[in-house]
Amino acid sequence: MLIPEKKNFNYVFLLLAFLAIFGIGFRFGQNSATCRVCAPEQVNFSLFWDAWNAVHEKYVNSDKLDTQKLIYGAISGMVNSIGDPYTTFLNPDQSQSFMEEVTGQFEGIGIEVGIKDNQLQVISPLEETPAKKAGLMAGDKIIKINGEAATDMTIDEAVKAIKGKRGTQVTLTIFRSDWDNTKDFKITRDVINIPSVKLEFMPTPGGQENDVAYLKIYQFSEKSDSEFARAANKILQSKAKKIILDLRNNPGGYLEVSQNIAGWFLEDGKIVVSEDFNGKETNIIYKAQGNSRLLKYPIVILINQGSASASEILAAALRDNRKAQIIGETSYGKGSVQEVQNLSGKSSIKITVANWLTPKGNHINNVGLAPDVEVKLTEDDYKGEKDPQLAKALEILKDMN
């Protein structure tokens, strides 16, 4: 899950004949005589129908053609031609799978994937999942899936190939920047229950016991609001005086959840993020609206290559508004916003509608957030269960009041 999705975008569109593949459908309840986006007059749609007829007339097994699959394929082709990996059509199965992910449970190996520099790669391996246990790391390049080249796969095609029933296996051919050759990872799929929040208490070097609240957010799912609130109240009732906010390998999720959590750390009314619609409409500014009860705590933030989307929004908001220091590695750089719109037949479409700006007006799409203090986590650190990034955060917190 790579994207700050918006909740409450439940627009349902009616497909009027097959022309709706190319135009935009009509909202239920509106006058169907007025199209929202009419078919462009300069486009001759007879080309499509010529191809449609040729397939049905000439294809050797035309009696076995599935009209619904052809329609889904045509829509997918239209959307994919945009060239934006985050604007995708989801057929009913894919749409259901997507909703399972954002609600926190599905079957697979537990990784978020994305396309960066035209290369399919691991954005983040999720905690306590087969992918994490197998040793996959953020930034790993996926060369093959079950022996099939992943070069030309869309994100949704890759996800479909990687996910599967519990107990089945998938083989990923991986290349890592410090390797000479690729390696195969054979991973057994399982039921993935994605956690949202983890809270621990620890001392700063030479400090008092439980002086620091270590708060890790794994993703911004539907249940993250309530889980974060429980963790925050435990911090308020504890002896902790400082906070480490760990957003490493957090691939994002719902934009509104990130905004709500920011409200715990910021003064009411401070800008969290704004959406830039490239002049199509007025920018939308999202502001902190919470209780600000964690405002008094000094805070440092951990990020890495697996920090994307809504996690980047939160990290940038705290740095721009509170000068919170960011420790770790440059984040993924997912700075666009998608809406999910339901279509007829239980299919849906994710559409990139805007780019987001940090409170100081910076774009980070395809660039990422650079840390204030860079600390790399090596493969040897990973295997030896060492965490120099966390150690650096504790060291920095030691001198903060």
Outline the low-pLDDT stretches.
Answer: 1-34
Rg over alpha carbons: 23 Å
Indicate the mean pLDDT.
Answer: 85
Q: Which structural class is indicated by helix and strand composition?
A: alpha+beta
Question: How much β-strand is present in the residues?
Answer: 25-35%
Helix content: 25-40%
Q: How widely separated are the two ends?
A: 36 Å
Overall 3D form: globular
- The number of helices is 10
> How would a textbook summarize the main sheet?
7 strands, mixed
The beta-strand count equals 21
Topology:
Layout (H helix, E strand, L loop, with lengths): L11 E3 L11 E2 L18 H13 L8 H14 L7 E3 L1 H12 L1 E4 L2 E6 L2 E7 L4 H5 L6 E5 L2 E2 L5 H8 L6 E7 L7 E6 L1 E4 L3 E6 L9 E6 L6 H13 L5 E5 L8 H11 L5 E6 L7 E4 L11 E5 L6 H13 L2 E4 L7 E8 L4 E10 L15 E2 L4 H5 L4 H11 L3
Parallel strand pairs: 1-19, 13-14, 14-17, 17-18, 18-21
Antiparallel strand pairs: 1-2, 3-20, 4-11, 5-6, 7-8, 7-9, 9-10, 12-13, 15-16, 15-20, 19-20
Helix pairs in contact: 6-7, 7-8
Molecular structure report:
The chain is of the alpha+beta class and 401 residues long. The protein is built from ten helices and 21 strands. It has helices at 46-58, 67-80, 92-103, 130-134, 155-162, 224-236, 255-265, 310-322, 379-383, 388-398, and strands at 12-14, 26-27, 88-90, 105-108, 111-116, 119-125, 141-145, 148-149, 169-175, 183-188, 190-193, 197-202, 212-217, 242-246, 271-276, 284-287, 299-303, 325-328, 336-343, 348-357, 373-374. Strands 1, 2, 3, 15, 16, 19 and 20 form a seven-stranded mixed β-sheet that branches. Strands 12-13-14-17-18-21 form a six-stranded mixed β-sheet, sandwiched between helices. Strand 9 and strand 10 (183-188) form a beta hairpin. Helix 6 (224-236) runs parallel beside helix 7 (255-265). The longest helix has 14 residues, at 67-80. The radius of gyration is 23 Å and the shape is globular. The model is unreliable at 1-34 (pLDDT under 50).
